[in-house]
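Input sequence (108 aa), recorded before submission:
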Amino acid sequence: MRLTTEFWVKAYLARLRLVDIPAYVTAHGDDTGGAVLVKLATLDGKARLFQRSFDLMTGERAWMVLSEGDEAEVDGSVRRQRQMDPDLWVIEVEDRAGRHLLDEPGLT
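Predicted structure, token format:
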């Protein structure tokens, strides 16, 4: 059985809260099957945008960097992705140390 996107988002936000990492849903996509982008803002004008992708070599799903650099440029990438996919979820994580927990067990 596959988890709904809404369930995964709620669980991810809860895990971030447990380690005092602020995060916000900035775009609410389709509850059952919308894709998720995670924007990590390091609060110094820089950001990275993560997208979950399928690795053809291993058959696993993994988080990859879709865009990184100045936060304004990353925001532009988010806008373009949202224009192509209105069912897309966007979560913004704010952490000076660059923590996002996407590499933690259970989030891949």
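Checked by second reader. The first strand starts at residue 23 and ends at 27.
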